[in-house]
Structure formats: C-alpha cells, structure tokens
Amino acid sequence: NDEEDGEKDKDTGETADIGGDERTLTIAVGSDMVTFDVHDHINTSTEAIHVNMFNYLVKRDNETGEILPDLAESFENIDDLTWEFKLKEGVTFHNGDELTSADVKYSLERVATGEELKDYPNYNQIKEVEILDDYRFRIITHEPEPVLLNRISRIASAILPSNYIEENGFDHFLQNPIGTGPFQFVEWVRDDRIVFEVYDDYFDGKNEEWDQLVFRVIPENSTRVSELLTGGADIAVNIPPADWDRVADHENTYLAQETSNRTLMIFLRSTEGYPTSDQRVREALDLAIDNQAIIDSLLGGAGVPTITRVAPGNFGYAEHLYDTYNYDLERAKELLAEAGFPDGFEMTLHSPRGRYLQDAEVAEMVAGMWAQIGVTANIEFMEWSNFVELRNANENEDAYLLGLGNSMFDAANALDWYSADRFEGETDYRNDEVEELLAAAMTNMDLEERNEQYIKAQELLAEDAAHIVLHMESINIGVSEELDYTPTMDEMIYVDTITRK
Amino acid sequence: MPQPSIMQGPARKNSKLKRWLKLLFRSKTGTVGLVIVISIVIIAIFAPWLAPHEPNVIDPVNTHKPPVWMEGGDRENLLGTDNLGRDILSRIIYGSQISLLVGISSVVLAGIIGILVGLFTGYFGGFLDTFFMRLADSFLAIPNILLALVMLGVFGPGLFTLILVLGVTNWVQYARIIRGEVLSIKERDFVRAAKSIGVKHRNIIFSHLYPNVISSFIVVATLSVASTIILESSLSFLGLGIQPPQVSWGTILSDGRDYLATSWWLATFPGLAITITVLGIIFLGDWLRDILDPRSVK
Amino acid sequence: MEHALLTVNRLKTYFYTEAGVVPAVDDVSFSIQKGEIVAIVGESGSGKSVTSLSVMGLIEEPGKIVGGEILFAGKDLVGMSMKKMRELRGNQLAMIFQEPLTSLNPVFSIGNQLAESIRLHQKKNKREARKIGIEMLKKVGIARPDKVYDQHPHALSGGMRQRVMIAMALSCNPQLLIADEPTTALDVTIQAQILRLMKDLIEESGTSILFITHDLGVVAEMADQVIVMYGGQVVEQADVYTLFKEPKHPYTKGLIDSTPKIDEWKEELVSIPGTVPGPFEFPEGCKFADRCPFVMDKCKAERPTVTKVGKGHEVRCWLHGEKVVDLNERASFT
Amino acid sequence: MSEHPLLEVRGLQKSFDVTKGFFKKEKQYLRAVNDVSFTVQNGEVLGVVGESGCGKSTLGNLIVHLHEPTAGKIVFEGIDMSALSREQLRRQRADIQMIFQDPFSSLNPRKRVFDIIAEPLRTHRDLNKEELQQEVLDLMDLVGLNRSFLNRYPHEFSGGQRQRIGIARAIALRPKLIICDEPVSALDVSIQSQILNLLKKLQKDLQLTYIFIAHGLPAVKHVSDRIAVMYLGKIVEWTTKEELFTNPMHPYTEGLLSAIPIPDPTKRKEQRPLLEGDIPNPVNPPPGCKFHPRCPYKTEICMQVEPEFTDKRAGHFVACHHPLGAEKQAEKKL
Amino acid sequence: MNYFLKRILEIIPVLLIITFIVFTLVFIAGDPVALLLPEDATTEDIAALQAALGLDDPFYVQYGRYVMNMLQGDFGTSFRYGEDAMLLVFERLPATLELAIASILVAIMIAIPLGIWSATKKNSSIDLVATGAAVLGKAMPNFWLGIMLILIFSVTYSIFPVSGRGSFAHLILPAITLGTGIAAEMTRLIRSSMLETLGQDYIRTAKSKGLRTGIVVYKHAFRNTLVPVVTIIALQTSTLIGGTLITETVFAWPGIGQLLIQAVNNRDMAIVQACVMVIAFFVIVMNLIADFLYQLLDPRIRYK
Ligand SMILES: Nc1ncnc2c1ncn2[C@@H]1O[C@H](COP(=O)(O)OP(=O)(O)OP(=O)(O)O)[C@@H](O)[C@H]1O
Ligand SMILES: Nc1ncnc2c1ncn2[C@@H]1O[C@H](COP(=O)(O)OP(=O)(O)OP(=O)(O)O)[C@@H](O)[C@H]1O
Ligand SMILES: [Mg+2]
Ligand SMILES: [Mg+2]
C-alpha cells in the first residue's frame, strides 16, 4: 500500500476537509483532558496534550533513553543532594514574559510541598529550588536522588509562569493557561474539544506545519474510528484491535504502532495458605502461559512478550529478560505435582474490564491456558473503581491482572512493586535479597553500579516467578495517509513530530 | 334440586382458561406474542441441551467466523463466532437465561415492593401516603438508568446487584400505578360494603383491593420485563451490566459493538434476539391488557 | 304514508362482535309525520339507541345496517354517500344524547361547539354564528347566554348542559330531532323543565321528534305515537292514548302496570318476571316467550308476526291471531 | 329495649373540606348533611328522597359509619355510637347493613357469588364449611337466586340478579337496620318492582327496619312508612307516607310531586306548576331558607331567616316559613 | 395559582430526598481518593489526601456540610477537575438540552402522525405496521442504533458528520437515535389515548353535527388526546435524559451524560450530586410545565 500514497491525494483531500482546514490538525482522543493544573492529575492522556503547550526542564530521548536539555541549557550534578541547572535564555511564555529561575522555583516547589496535589508523592523528594540568578538555579533533594532527571522530564514538572499566576491568581491561570510550548491555548469545550494555535515565538522555532491544533474528545471507540475514516480527525488514538485492519486497509488511513512502556501482569498472592505462596506453583502458572499466543490472537501480533517490567529505554533494562517468555506445559505440570497439586487447584483471578487493551479477553485466555494444567481459575471481572477498592482493602484473592506504565523510565519505579512493606497484606511477596538490592539502588548515585543492582534484582525475581509478566502493550494510533507520524513509547503526542507528507 | 357443590371450582376455572385461549387465538398478535414468549422460556430452560457449544469456550483459531450462509462460515457455528472464537448461537441461547432472569426477577422484586407500598399508602392515605409520594416523586425525577448507574457503580456490577438495583429503581412506577388504582377502587361500593360489614383492613386490602389491582400490574409488568432487558443491555454498554463469564444478550451485544463495522453478526444477532423477545412480550402484554381489562369481561 | 317525514322500513342493524352476531335492531318499521312526537320505549338493551343511531348514520364498527330502508323526506339514508349524509346531519337531522356530562367536548367552549354546526350548515362567519348561538341559548332558557357562550361545559350543571345540547341540535332548524333519553340522567324537577322546553320549542318550529325513553310516564306526557321495543323488535305501536288504554302486547301491559303511579296504593307492585335475556339468550320463538304469562306453545316455536289490531295499532304477538284479546280483562302480572 | 327508638339521629352534620389551593386563608366547606335529626322505630321503613347531591348518600354513610360525623349524634338502640371503641364498632356493624345503588360496583368482580355472600358471615360468625355453605344457600333461596349460581362471578348476572346478591349479603347477619341507598334506580322498570317487592317481603318476614333512600317519590312510596324529604343537606319535611302524598306542606315537596310524570296520557297536566332553576352550589348555599331561590311562595323573611324544623301538625315536621297545609288550613278556617 | 405554589413548594422535600438518596449511595461507595492517586500510591498518600479533602468525617457530618453548603449555592468541588461542580454541570447543560429538545421534536414528529393514524385505522395493516415499527424502535438499544446510523449515514454515505456538536447536521443523527426510542413509547400511548377518545360520547356528538372526519379527529379528538400526551412527554423527560447518557457517549456529544458517566466511574461525588440535582430539577420542572399545560388544555380541571 505504501507506494501508492502519492496518487491518492485527490480522494483524500475532499474528506479531510470535514475536519477543518488544511493547516488544522485534528486529533481524536478517547477521554477529555482533566485539568490545566499540571500538578494535580495523574492522567497520561492529559499529559499527552499538555506537552504541546508546556515544557519540562529536560526531555528524555525516546530512542536512547538519554536525558536531553529542553528549557534547561545545561545541568550538572554538584553533590549527592544537589543539581545545578542553567536555563536557555530568551524563552518566553505565551504572554511574552521571559522564563526565569523564579518560574522554576515556583513550579517545582508548588508540587513538592503541596500535599493535596495528586503528584505530590512523586515530587516530595525535592527539598527546595535555590535561585542563583535569573537563569541559574539548584535543585536540592532530601536524600540522594539518582532519578531526579527522569523525574523532572515527565508529568507535573512543567514550568508554569509564576508572575502571571501571582498577578491573576491560579483560577485565572486554569481558565487561561499559558506555557512555553509550541502551541498556545485557545479554548477548551469540555468533553468536546481543546483548541490550540501555533505560538509564533516558540523558543525552539515556530511550528511551520500547523496553525491550529484541535484535540477532539470521542469516548466511543467505533465513533472515533469512524471520525478518522471519514476525515473528521487526522489522527485517532487508542484504536481497538477490532478496527486495526479497518484502519490499516482503508485507503485514507494507516495504523501506526509502537510498543508502549505499559506492561500487563498477573499479580500473585504469596500469602501463607494460598497455593501461589509456593514458588513452584507460581512458576508452573507462568510456564503454562503461551505469551506469544495471546499477543497473536488477541493483540493482532502487536505487543512484546517479556519476563521483566523494565523495557528498553528504561534505566536498569535487562536485555536477556525482554522479548522472551517461558512456556513449557510439561514442566509446569511437573512443578505442580511437586508442589502437591497433581490434579491442579481452583483459584480466583480478578480482572478489570476495559481498562487495558483487551484486558478481559486476556484474562479469559489465561484462564483457558491454566485449565490445561488442571488449574481452574474463576475470573471475577470488576469495574475499575471497585477493582481499586478491592486492592486497597487487601481483599484480592490468588491473583489479579494489572497493567502498569512507567513514565519515569527507571527501574526503581517498576521494581518498587516487589517491595515487601508496600504490599503487606496485598500480595505479601517478600524476597530479602531483592529488598536489599532495591534499597541500595534507591539512593545510589553511582549509576553503573545502580544499573547492575537492578538487573540482578530482576534476575532474582524472574527466578522466583514473583508475579507473572505477560507482555508490553502496543500503542495503536490511526493516522491519515496524508500525514507522517510515529508514536513514541511514552504515549505523548508531540505535534512537532507530525508532518504533512 | 341437586345440591350444587362449592367444589365446582376447577370446572369453571377450566372454562375460563378455555375462554382465554379462545380470546387468545382470535388475536393474531396475541398468539404470535405467546408463541414467542413460550419459545424463549423453553430455550432458556433447556439451554444446556439446545446449545451446540459451551458458551464460554475460547477458540483462538476460529475467531470472527461469519454465520453459516456467508462465505467462510460453516455448520459448526451457525451464527458465527465472536472475537474469542466463541459460538454466538450458543451464547445467545445461554444468554436468554440471564436476560429473562434479570428481566423477570427484577420486575417481580419491584412488583412486590410497589404493590405493597401502593396498596397500603393508597388505602390508608395520610402522612405515610404523602411521604411515599414524595419519595416516589424523588425516584421518578432520577432517570432509571442514572440511578442504576450510580447504584451499580457503588455496589459493583453483578447479577444479584443488577436484579436488586433494577428492582429498587422500578418499584416506584408500580407503587404509583397501584396506588392510583387503589384510590379509585376503594371508593367503589364493594369496598365500602366490606367496610360496612366490618371486614378488617388487612382483609380488605388483600382480598378486595389486591385481586382488582393485580391485573393492571401484570399488564405493566409484562412490558417492564421488556424494558428491563433493554436497560440491562444499555448498562452492559456502560460496562455495568452482567459480568463474564455469565452471558446475557446485553453483554453479547455490547461486546460486539466494537465489531459492528467488521463482524456485524456479533452484535446483530443478540440485538435481534432482544427485538424479537420484546416484540413478543409487548404483543402478549397488549393482549393481556385487553383480556384483563375489567371492561372486557362481559 | 307518503307524506311521512321519516319512514323506517324493515330496518336491520346487526353487530358482528367477537362473541357472535348481535341483532340489535331486527326488522323494525315505523314512521314519523311532520310535527309529530314519536316515542320509542323499551328496557335497556332493547335496541332503542341503535335504531336512532341507524337513522343518523352513526353506526360504527362492528355494527352494520344489513337490511331495510330509512326514508327521510323521500330519500333513502341507507347507502347514502358520506358527504350527503353529513350535509343532512346537524342540519335537517339533529340528535341529543342521554349523558349531558360526556356529550359535550370538555376542552372547547360552549360557543365554539355551538357555532361549529351553525358555521358549517348555515355558512355564517364567526360573528354571525356567535349572535345566532347566543340567541339559541337564550331560547332554551339559559340566563346570561353571552357569558355561558364563552364558558366550558364543566362550568355548567347537568340541566344546563342538556339545554345547551338542545340549543345545538335546534340551531339549524332541523326537521327531525332525535332525542335519546335526554332526561334520564336528570333529576325529576329538571326533567320536567327540559320536557316542557322541548315541547314549547317544537310547537314553535314544527320539528318532529323521535323521543327515546324507558319511562312510560315521560311517554304519556310527551308522545303522540308510541313504539314499544323488546329485544331489537317493535312489539307494539299505537297512538299514545290507545296504547295506554288498550295495550295489546303482554310486554306493554307489563311495562304499564309495573310503572309506579303516584296515586295508586297497592300492597304488592306488579312486575314482569325474569330478566331481559342477554343478546344471545333470547328464546327461539317469541323473544318475550319465557317472561310472558300468556305464553302458548306456538309462542315458543315460532317468531310472531305483526298483526294490525286497530287503526295505526300494530302488535307483534300470537295472542291476537284469530281475535283481538283484551289484556285489561285478564289479571296478567302479579 | 323498646323504650328507645331503634335509631335516633340528632343534629347530625357532615362537612367536606373542599378548599381549593394551599394558601387560601379561608377554608371552604361543603355541608353535605346539615343539622339533621330524626328517629326510626323498630320495624318501620323511613324513605329519604331528594334531588341528586342533596346529601342522601352521605346521610346513609354516616349511619353505617363509613363517614365520621362532623357534629351531632347517632344513637343506635340507645347507645351513642361515637362512644364505642373501634372493636365494639366493628362488631356493631353486624347490626347495620347497607344495600348500594350501583349493582355493578357494589360487587367485587373478582369474587364468586358464594364468597360475596359469605363475607359477612366469615367476618362475624364462626361457621364451619358446611354450615357456611348451607347458610349461603338459604340466603340465596331467600332472595330468589338460583342455587346453581353459587360459583359464578358477578359479571355473569343481570342488574336485578346482582342486586339480589347485594341484598343477600346485607341480610346475611340479620341486621336490625338496613340502609338501602337507591337500590332500584339503576334497574329497568320491569325489574324495579321485583326488587321492591322482594325488599318489602324480606322486611316483613325478617322484621327488618329500613332507611330507604331514593331519588324520587314513586320509588319510596311503596315501601316506606314514613318519608323524609331532603334539600341541600337538610330535611325539609318528615312525616308519614300518606300525609306526605295527600298533604305536602313544603313547597319543595309539592314541586317534586308535580314534576313526576304520570303514566297516563289522559291525565296530562299541561300547565302544572314547575320548580324553576337548579339546585344552588352547596358550597355557597343561599342565606335564609335554602330553598327560597326556587320557591314560588317566598317572602322577605325566607331570604333572611332560616326556618325551623318543627312539627306543624302531629308527626308532620316541616322547615318552612309558609307551610302549604297551614295556609290551606288557615284558608279552611276562614 | 395556589395550586402551583403548592406544587412548587413540594419540590423542596423532593430535592432533599434526592440529595439524601444520592449522597447515601455515593457515601456507601467509598471515597474516591484511591482513584485519584496513581496506581502506585501508598497508604499514607491515600490517608493524607482523604484528610485534606475532609473525607474522613462521619456520614452525618459530611451530609450536613453538603446540605448547608448547597443551601448557600455551593454544590461542592469536583475532585477530578478541581472546579465547582455545579458550574461544570451548567457548562454542559445547553448541549444536553439541545439534544433533548431535538429528540423530543423528532419523537413528536414520528409519534403523533403514526399514533393517530394507527388509531383511526385500528386493526388495519397500517396499524399493524405502525405498531410493529413502534415496538422495533423500542427494542433497539440506543447505542446499537447510534453506531449503526454512523456506519450507514456517515461512514458509508458521508451524509452527516460522525460525531461532535456544532452545526445542525451534527444534531440529526443523535436526535434520531434518542428520539426513536421515545417515539416508540409515545406512539403506543398516543394510539391508545386516541382510541379511548374516539370512543367518547362527544365524538359522537361532533359527528352528529355533520362535521367532516378530519375535523372530528384533528379538532375534537386530538385536543383531548393531547392532555394525556403532554403528561406522557413530561414523564418521558426522565427516560429521555437517561437516554442522553448513552447517546452522548456514542456521538461524543459534550453534555451532562458524558460528564456523569465519568463522574460515576471516578466517584466524583460532587459532580454526581450536582448532575442528579440538575436533572431531577429539570424533570420536576417539566412535570410542572406539563401540569400547567394540562390545565390549559383541559378546562375540566380549572372548574374542579
Ligand atoms: N357497539 C356495539 N357492539 C356490540 N353490540 C352492541 C353495540 N352497541 C349496541 N349493541 C347491542 O345492541 C343491543 C341494543 O343496544 P341499544 O344501545 O340500542 O339499547 P337501548 O335500548 O338504547 O338501551 P339503553 O336503555 O340501555 O340505552 C344491545 O344488546 C347491545 O348489546
Ligand atoms: N367525599 C366527598 N368529598 C367532598 N364532597 C362530597 C364527598 N361526598 C359527597 N360530597 C358532596 O356532598 C354532597 C352530597 O352528596 P351525596 O352523595 O350525599 O348526595 P346524594 O343525595 O346521595 O346524591 P345522588 O342522588 O347523586 O346519589 C354533594 O354535593 C357531593 O358533591
Ligand atoms: Mg340507549
Ligand atoms: Mg347517592
């Protein structure tokens, strides 16, 4: 199909216009943005919109995982607790104010101290921001913080205009937000659209491709796909597997896929008394699952089987545990027999429904695979909020299905799910060796050594079959044939990277 | 004169049944309705014997198989398979169980509450009545589906909660109807006659009022079974309906909605099943209204 | 009689119900002269209303006129086109009904409903119609007619509403007025007022009336000619004096005797035994056979035919086969 | 026992709150029964007549305690009913029964004849199955219902038969007093006299006492010993039947009498005096004598002063400033 | 007029009961804090946020606070959006009203002719077809119809835009989707109401005046049929608003329905409360208006 692209312009030109004029980019998203208070949401899809009007001090290269300057021109580690930054000069907010260290201090300290803010838990490691001059400042942490740079390259570290907010109040800012990004805010019609226009004085150069940027909120999958197909949207995110072929085969559109940083896992309960407290049982359950078969039949082949949560591009990535999986029915049966369950056993698998790509279907398939080794898994599907409650109340049974993202791109975040204290009463998994490694790595500023510690921990966890890691999900975006767009692993939609062919 | 016995009862009942059947077959739509409803009830009862496959068995190889008459379809799965390769016909057959169960039991539950409240408030009036009517107004001001949504969100979806929720959201409508009927019937002379005889209130309510209001309840209730089946499918659409592995028509239908453009049969056949059932129930309900209407009893 | 205003000839109106065919009007013949008041009397279900509705052409599904003719001013109304029928209705043929409560449309003002037929049949505009309408209301004895004209039916009492109905019926000077039990729902004192009003108005305009009632008292007060119906058939007809003096049908006699009289003192009232049978329960022969004290074998076997027993006096009874029997001489009912 | 009249009603009043709207300062009351007093002796029949809406049914309902009186006393067998406890009252209901006007709404359509007639027996007497059935069958014989009807439903009967069922129910407990609320108004003429005869016969055979309510005088004439005429919630005349018919003293009674159509064309009262106008709205009754707006004899005093209800002659109570008989007698004296 | 004052005053206890019902439900549901925090939040994080939001108070304190605030016009703050809940609801209200009114119009346009038509031609094949259509309309779930309409009219034939709110064209498919279900109910009710009216005595009177069938049906019968129909439409408001929940989701219509569904999923108590209050108030007002129309249309009530 790809070769024919050029000739199709005539057909597509007409329909594309329904969405707006030529220089407007319309992106259909599944849920509305939550707020412009960048510190008070945990919503990846909101951040995906925000990145077009705000900037962080640094940005992560999606290819290499390297941390690159963004608003900051340079940065350096002074000591265990201190990082010094220098800002680029001439960066302006959309109201023309110049970006200074004061803005950084205001932004980061707001979230680092604002207990009622939803991102507070991820920023309370920062003690203060010390201003050296208009362009130079230091970030001081409470404890050694090896992942500080990762932290401030993501959600809630956008730099806000402190003067503007002080003059007009935060509510005014929420109604009329301004940032430093390539696009500036025009309007937000809730549950309908968020409109931006290009910012001429963007410090990294004005976006010449688009004058206007519209995010349309279309919750119903098939409607979103229909909008894409009819040209009502140029890009549509979260295309359900059901429609992949339709989008890919349609003459006006193609499907752009990328592996995300989200892992689908089955958490097992190691609490005394549960069959899954026996390592052999856990391993058997893992061995019984044919990860690739799930990916092939439910995810149209898009997705990467894995044994670890830490994917390429993340700090602490263990290559030999990625893009592979264990599958051996015979061994699984043996292990079960050894563990004292020659005839299998009955267990409960909780699963959310509609939260992750094909989550319910995956759960059903997993149960089907377990049935082959004699394990009967009764699936209890739950609506998301009930599922959250169940976990908070530690009422989970043998196993539950969960998909975990990691916007920090650091193994610390990923492996914290095995720390014993945090999951006492919930999974009750404890591996003292892993505990030690994680604790050491947490504040270890020697990156090399830290990397080793995490890889070691992952190996131990794999051996122990602590939880079952199924696969990395794919990001599935439908794109108009007229556009070039490659999604990124972090699930952000960087409009600067979207171009007309 | 030979002593007539009270035991003539059954014989007369029989002739009543005959009269009804006669009336039934005179009404074309009534007949159609009854046939549909009986068939569906039979299908629901005998689902395990009628269904060619287990409803939940996944077959990753045979997903999205079209119905038999289309290219690619075969006899194994007459109505095709869904995204997990499950047999749609079997799922629809099994789905009838839950759909009917939800429809009927929630209506019965709502009916019991509604009838009792309606009878007592209508008969006694006074403060209790005022209170219940305000309560009824409140319930009526909240759309059914909204109340169900909130309640299911609160208690979590599931068969039992669903029945409970639908029952609780619907009782008001019956209470109102029954109360209205009671208000008019209690002014009728036979109730006043009973009062003047000194019959106890409880007996008046249950032996005079109840038999006279029950028919209008039955008429409304039949139709509610239909609306409830539809409501359940709407809740499934919102993710709050019946949860797998249990199957209802609503869940099959809403599971299939992502595939309407590619595998239309996933959502269309359960939709058709709902349509036919509703049609049957409505026809039956209309017929019931005609024959249970006291004006038609001549 | 060629000059009769209305001649009904062997009229048959049947209802094809789910339970079977109901011969509501079964071979009914009578005629009405100009300026005459003819009363149809009979018990509930005897077919009085159906007869009158047949004349008005208002029989509806599942009913149907299956035989006979209705000659009005020489034209047969049976089978007349809807359009022509509508021109007659409300114009030369008018009707008032029993229930004053329900016979007026509750949502329109009196004036609106009154003006409707005036405008339709007399081609008057709204203002003229209003004038005529108010005039008519005054005529039927309504005080403050201009106020009542703009009121809605429910502001009026039953008697007033019946007056409005009469005003409506007479507004286009009909030649024949059919009054189907116009006073049954009213109190005696109001009934007396309405009856007098009707009589007075008739005298003025020369309109004929087909007056339907089940009260022989009213018949005696109002009628010139009387038709007695039973089970959808005319069992006797005669002028009012003859009928009351020498009833020839046992049923007529029974009706007269069982009508309470204010000036009579009796230990036990006369009554007709049994009840009127349902539409499918009439006996084979004479429909009155199983309630009749004079019943003969023939009555049970054969439907009686009409016998002429005097001038304008006809009766449907086997008793008067060879010679006319005087029922008054027989102690018939107890 | 016999020292008391069976029933004594003193100053009985019943007002219905008919206030419209929520914030009306003044409540509006409809005095359906307004200061009514009379006595009924054991074994006698009191007829109560009056136009529609004059409060007859309300009076009957008060006596069987379907309504609570607003004021006044009902003394039954010397016992003040308002002094009874609820349970006593319930027991007492066995002694006072009621027969209703509408034979269709007075029988529960979902119950069989047996259950309908047996209901009072089940409520007040402890009978076993056979006794109960025997009792019901006896009652059916008594009111002339075929025993084979035992298991039928009411809709299978004609009006007259239904009324018989209602009568059987009312006499089942051999009550001392029966209120008959227009028991024959809804029936055909030929059936009316059957029921009246039956009631009369039962009264004699079972030594019953009736309060017999009716619209018009002809109906009560036959059964009553004494008659009370009501107008707008008040009794305006109360005396023996003979006295009332021969010597009516209240102008309203006279009007009622003259409005009755006579079933004899030879006695047409062409220009008899008729009462004019309608009954006034009972919520705003006229001042003075309630009847004055319609009274042909009214004078100044009638418009202002409400006449007292006194016996103008022995046993003949009238509420009128200008009683007719008195004038006549005065004339006679002159 | 007093009657209306009474009716209006009756709204107050009704609204109070509604707040109580919903508040209780949401309270039982548990607090939303866990949902507000990331998947990896700790128990301490949760407790901290709970205290910050005042969610650790007992029920009556919370309810009392809610009612007191409500009386001062403060319906609480959305946890999710951090904004005044009532403002959020009012922001969406116009869209929902637009859709609701358009749907009612669609329903009326379908139901009145169909209902009258099938009543006047009772038991004919037309009647049967109309009844069948009505039943079908009732039996098709809204979302199924909506998606189908999009696939047919937007994707295949490009006649109407797929989704969103904007031009008149945007309104058509959602209004049809929502209107059809209500039309089905209305048709049946108009038919039976019409049938009943046609059997009334005054219809016979009208005919006896020699009026044309058209006038008899459309003047005399229809005005009387309107009385129950107005009430039915008012009673359907509740169903209608319920229907917007689904229709709005399918057509990405930015109204209350979508807001509400998300609020329920996120335990956003303030928004759920505010939505329910607004919807209930709207339904009640519609019923009041119906009552008023009732009096206008049926003079009987005025003279009662
Ligand atoms: N629409 C109808 N369908 C079936 N049968 C009917 C219909 N209308 C009248 N009948 C039957 O026709 C017969 C005569 O009825 P009609 O109304 O003429 O009696 P009537 O003499 O006017 O009685 P009433 O005094 O009660 O008005 C009755 O047996 C009735 O059952
Ligand atoms: N429950 C009630 N509430 C208000 N008004 C009532 C009530 N019952 C009766 N009335 C009024 O009281 C008056 C007397 O009514 P009642 O039924 O006693 O009259 P009636 O003489 O029996 O009339 P009818 O001859 O029509 O049966 C009427 O004006 C009636 O409207
Ligand atoms: Mg009649
Ligand atoms: Mg009465």
Automatic annotation (TrEMBL), chain B:
One Pfam family from the record: OppC_N
Which keywords describe this protein according to UniProt?
Cell membrane, Membrane, Transmembrane, Transmembrane helix, Transport
Please give the start and end residues of each transmembrane region.
30-51, 100-125, 145-169, 209-231, 264-288
Task: List, alphabetically, the CDD domains matched.
Answer: TM_PBP2
Q: Where in the cell is it found?
A: Cell membrane
A Gene Ontology cellular component where this protein is annotated is: plasma membrane
Which BP terms from GO are recorded?
transmembrane transport
| Xref: PANTHER family | D,D-DIPEPTIDE TRANSPORT SYSTEM PERMEASE PROTEIN DDPC-RELATED, OLIGOPEPTIDE TRANSPORT SYSTEM PERMEASE PROTEIN APPC
| Protein known as | Peptide ABC transporter permease
Q: Which organism is it from?
A: Oceanobacillus indicireducens
Q: Name the lineage.
A: Bacteria, Bacillati, Bacillota, Bacilli, Bacillales
UniProtKB/TrEMBL annotation, chain C:
Single annotated GO MF: ATP hydrolysis activity
Q: Which UniProt keywords apply?
A: ATP-binding, Cell membrane, Membrane, Nucleotide-binding, Transport
Q: From which domain of life does this come?
A: Bacteria
Q: Which Pfam families match?
A: ABC_tran, oligo_HPY
Q: Does the keyword Membrane apply?
A: yes
Which InterPro entries does its entry note?
Answer: AAA+_ATPase, ABC_Ni/Peptide_Import, ABC_transporter-like_ATP-bd, ABC_transporter-like_CS, Oligopep_ABC_C, P-loop_NTPase
Q: What is its main location?
A: membrane
Q: What is one Gene Ontology biological process annotated in the Swiss-Prot or TrEMBL record?
A: peptide transport
Q: Which locations, inside or outside the cell, does it occupy?
A: Cell membrane
One GO term of the cellular component aspect?
plasma membrane
CDD domains in UniProt? ABC_NikE_OppD_transporters (cd03257)
Regarding protein family, the annotation reads: Belongs to the ABC transporter superfamily.
The entry's protein name is ABC transporter ATP-binding protein
TrEMBL record, chain D:
For this UniProt entry, the molecular function terms from Gene Ontology, in alphabetical order, are: ATP binding; ATP hydrolysis activity
| Family annotation (InterPro entries) | AAA+_ATPase (IPR003593), ABC_transp_ATP-bind (IPR050319), ABC_transporter-like_ATP-bd (IPR003439), ABC_transporter-like_CS (IPR017871), Oligopep_ABC_C (IPR013563), P-loop_NTPase (IPR027417)
Q: Which Pfam families match?
A: ABC_tran (PF00005), oligo_HPY (PF08352)
Statement: the UniProt record of this protein carries the keyword ATP-binding: yes
Q: Tell me which Gene Ontology terms the entry assigns under biological process.
A: peptide transport; transmembrane transport
UniProt feature, compositional bias: Basic and acidic residues: 265-275
Q: Which CDD domains match?
A: ABC_NikE_OppD_transporters
Q: Which SUPFAM superfamilies match?
A: P-loop containing nucleoside triphosphate hydrolases
State if Nucleotide-binding is listed as a keyword: yes
Q: Which UniProt keywords apply?
A: ATP-binding, Nucleotide-binding, Transport
Recorded hits in SMART domains, A to Z, give: AAA
Domain (ABC transporter): residue spans on this chain: 13-257
State the organism named in the record.
Oceanobacillus indicireducens
Q: Where is this region: Disordered?
A: 260-285
Mind telling me which Gene3D superfamilies this protein's record contains?
A: P-loop containing nucleotide triphosphate hydrolases
What is the name attached to this protein's record? ABC transporter ATP-binding protein
The opening ranks of the lineage are: Bacteria, Bacillati, Bacillota, Bacilli, Bacillales
- Origin: domain of life: Bacteria
Q: Which family does it belong to?
A: Belongs to the ABC transporter superfamily.
From TrEMBL, chain E:
Protein name in UniProt: Glutathione ABC transporter permease
Instruction: State the superkingdom.
Output: Bacteria
User: InterPro entries from the xrefs?
Assistant: BPD_transp_1_N (IPR045621), MetI-like (IPR000515), MetI-like_sf (IPR035906)
Membrane-spanning residues where? 12-30, 99-120, 141-160, 166-184, 226-251, 271-294
Sorted alphabetically, the Gene Ontology cellular component annotations on this record are:
plasma membrane
Pfam families on file = BPD_transp_1, BPD_transp_1_N
Which parts of the sequence belong to the ABC transmembrane type-1 domain? 93-290
Can you say where in the cell this protein is located? Cell membrane
State the CDD domains in the record: TM_PBP2
Which keywords belong to this entry? Cell membrane, Membrane, Transmembrane, Transmembrane helix, Transport
Database matches in PANTHER family: DIPEPTIDE TRANSPORT SYSTEM PERMEASE PROTEIN DPPB-RELATED
Q: Which family does it belong to?
A: Belongs to the binding-protein-dependent transport system permease family.
Q: Report if keyword Transmembrane is assigned.
A: yes
GO terms (BP aspect): transmembrane transport
Q: Does the keyword Glycoprotein apply?
A: no
The membrane topology term of the UniProt record is: Multi-pass membrane protein
